[in-house]
Write the structure tokens for this entry.
Amino acid sequence: MGVDPGKPIQLGAALKYAALDPDNKGGPSYGHYLELDPVFATLKDTADAAVAGLWSNDNWDMFRAAWRVPGPLPADCPQPVTDVSESYQTIPMRDGAEIEIKIMTSTKNENKNTSTERQGNVCVLRMHGGGWAFGWHGSEAVENLHAANHPNVVLVSIDYRLAPEHRYPTPLNDCVDTLKWVKANAASLNINAEKIVLLGDSSGSNLYLALALKARDENISGIIAMMLDWPNGCHPMFHQKPRDEQGFELESFVQNHNASVIDANVLEFCWDAYVPDAQPDPYHSPLLADSFKGLPPAFIQIAGYDPIRDEGLAISEKLKKDGVATETHVYKGLPHCFSILFGDLHQSKQFQEQQNTFLAKTVKAANEGKPE
């Protein structure tokens, strides 16, 4: 069974869905990405102690509050109010509940609200990370501010309901319903309903890859690109199927089982919160989908010292095999979410620059009527 929000948070003492192997060096193609970055190696012990402190909270309210503490913004980051305007709104979901969205755009764009100007505005639809169980609008604050500061961009962040109180498929349904709401309310948002870019981080990337599959399967138009940060691709219980049927390595869950920031025990805890008593389903484990054919162009960034590294690489392989234009970057020897936690690393700055460049190219291509 899944975790109970009324009980203390407790990670498993041992893995349930994978057998540990101390001799596992990763697969032949991707195992070398584990080798620690020398600068991060000097920060690792401090980082491990800080993250361990977050997991020491003994109830869900304290745990979630600890993850909501905002960090300082880098000097080169666009600033709220002066560079990026922010507003909030509640919108209805299919079951009668309401969730909050956060709307962000460059202050230079605020007065661009004519019909002609609206046609050039792309909506970046953000799904935050946090293992489907924690996280909020501010989880990827720096990325959101950079994206919203682009000309012709309006970012909409989804505060989807969290597991374990709201298990699969509720968080995904919230994202689907928000996509439909955004399209129906494009004029009030000053966006073009047929120019939507999905932006997700970790479990957020899992949600929007599932959202892209839903949109394809249900003929919901408008998504022109996907931007995935270290995506979860498959419940570890079902890794063997894509290994056997598609030849994916999927060794990093064991090779990096004790990685910094997010280890395999944490991932199992989060999966149990989101999908207790899991059954095979491509809408929570997209690597189980028969095909990615027809999905929008993708941009993927992956950490080498991450238990879900190989899931991200398998997603990239599957997209390319199925004819989807895909750009992939791997950062050797760095942990999950490194760009958020270690903003001074040169790779973190590169990470943000790559994302900015892809978004700018996508917006330009959309407004020139050319595919990315």
About this structure: The chain has 13 helices and eight strands.
